[in-house]
Amino acid sequence: MRIYGDLVSGNCLKVKIVADLVGLSYEWVPVDILKGESRTPDYLSRFPAGQVPGLELDDGRCLAQSNAIMRYLARDSALIPGEDFLRAKMDEWLFWEQYSHEPAIAVCRFEMRYLGKPSEARDPARVRRGEAALDLMERHLAGAQWMVGHGVSLADVALFAYTQWADEGGFDLTARPAIRAWLGRCTQALRPAAAD
């Protein structure tokens, strides 16, 4: 099994975290998105959208989109709640992460960290969207240890990836103690596997 990705991307990091947590054997294939390596004919033959991460199974089948890959890799693990409603709540957070959280937090981070733009150059609508996403997480986590249920799930992995770097996109977490505490719990629960 091969996982194609660039670890400057939270979307790639979360797939690597899941693969490591569930103890899968895989080859990590580095794809430098800043050098356009996800746009080569070889890469596009596997992943036509030209995005990272990508998963190539031993039989040659390929799967794209980080949350779909995480869902597949974790299918028989404790990272997916066993109860139907909690599984649906996890999916709710996964869809929200890709629609409301990642497009704001990740894009602001990319522009500031990798394109060298100052925080003042961020799109105000994107900044408002990112602040609203972080505010929603703060409200939720003020009354919960994890995003879903009583333990770490794919919802935590997905949201951890870019929330941990929110400051690199100009977002201040100092007034969000519940998120900061949750990030600490995630670091303990997720980082040992990601560091292997």
TrEMBL record:
It comes from the Bacteria. Transmembrane segments: none annotated. SUPFAM superfamilies: GST C-terminal domain-like, Thioredoxin-like. PROSITE patterns: GST_CTER, GST_NTER. Residues 1-81 form the GST N-terminal domain. Residues 83-196 form the GST C-terminal domain. This is Glutathione S-transferase GST-6.0.
